[in-house]
């Protein structure tokens, strides 16, 4: 990383943490892969001390696990863990979209429209990291539009796992981000037309539509269901 990239953070450790975290969540590192200090030092240009501190922060966030004498590795979820997660998230996202049909105002609708338009541009420019960020932005805005702070906080806490699992569903599938954006437009249309039942079902279907792809991606790492 360059010096200017670190200026937005309060410390080198914080900047290093965000840099490595972004690499994990955008699929540069995949589940099961080990993160080696020497490689990260060469990539970031910082010393091993902030690298180690950043890795510990990512371990606390459960994006990494520390194995005795082997170092840090991105965890490999089981098929059941993934399925349980997606079932829960589908219910929460469906509830958020349903609430948004009644609670969202004109300003919120404009924000969501702008996020979708920017996502289209980023997708056309093949800016995957930006597409993922705007994907999250869409779901965050729907949660905000639901006017339920507890729901928004819960979905925000799930976001890291959403991004981690997304690498399994998007890896090697250039068409998947396109389909994701199409589904976002359908959810938004239901919200904008105040169709509560349709908004809920489309949001839930959107989440569950990714589950088979994630489980398929898991097979390339280890047999599904292996503990």
Characteristic terms for this protein:
227 residues; mainly alpha; Arc Repressor Mutant, subunit A; Four Helix Bundle (Hemerythrin (Met), subunit A); 2 domains; three-stranded antiparallel sheet; 10 helices; 72% helix; globular; disordered N terminus; disordered C terminus
Compact summary:
The chain is mainly α and 227 residues long.
Structure description:
It contains ten helices and three strands. 72% of the residues lie in helices and 4% in strands. Helix 6 packs antiparallel against helix 7 and helix 6 runs antiparallel to helix 9. A three-stranded antiparallel sheet has the order 1-3-2. The protein has two domains: 71 residues, Arc Repressor Mutant, subunit A (Orthogonal Bundle), CATH 1.10.10.10; 141 residues, Four Helix Bundle (Hemerythrin (Met), subunit A), CATH 1.20.120. The N terminus and C terminus are likely disordered. It has 227 residues and is mainly α.
Give the arrangement of secondary structure elements.
Layout lengths: L2 H4 L5 H14 L8 E2 L1 H8 L3 H13 L4 E3 L3 E3 L5 H25 L2 H19 L3 H18 L3 H22 L5 H17 L3 H24 L8
Antiparallel strand pairs: 1-3, 2-3
């Amino acid at each position: 990383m360059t010096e200017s990239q670190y200026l937005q953070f309060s410390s080198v450790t914080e900047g290093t943490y965000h840099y490595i975290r972004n690499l994990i969540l955008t699929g540069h590192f995949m589940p099961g892969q080990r993160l080696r200090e020497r490689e990260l030092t060469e990539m970031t240009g910082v010393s091993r001390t902030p690298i180690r501190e950043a890795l510990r922060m990512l371990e606390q966030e459960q994006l990494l696990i520390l194995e005795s004498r082997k170092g840090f590795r991105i965890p490999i979820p089981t098929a059941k863990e993934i399925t349980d997660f997606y079932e829960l998230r589908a219910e929460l996202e469906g509830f958020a979209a349903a609430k948004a049909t009644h609670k969202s105002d004109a300003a919120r609708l404009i924000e969501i429209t702008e996020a979708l338009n920017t996502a289209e541009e980023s997708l056309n420019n093949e800016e995957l990291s930006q597409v993922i960020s705007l994907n999250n932005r869409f779901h965050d805005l729907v949660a905000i539009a639901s006017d339920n702070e507890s729901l928004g906080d819960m979905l925000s806490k799930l976001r890291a796992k959403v991004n981690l699992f997304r690498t399994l569903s998007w890896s090697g599938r250039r068409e998947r981000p396109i389909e994701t954006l199409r589904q976002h437009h359908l959810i938004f249309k239901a919200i904008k037309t105040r169709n509560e039942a349709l908004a809920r079902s489309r949001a839930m279907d959107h989440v569950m539509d990714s589950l088979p792809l994630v489980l398929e991606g898991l097979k390339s790492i280890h047999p599904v269901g292996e503990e």
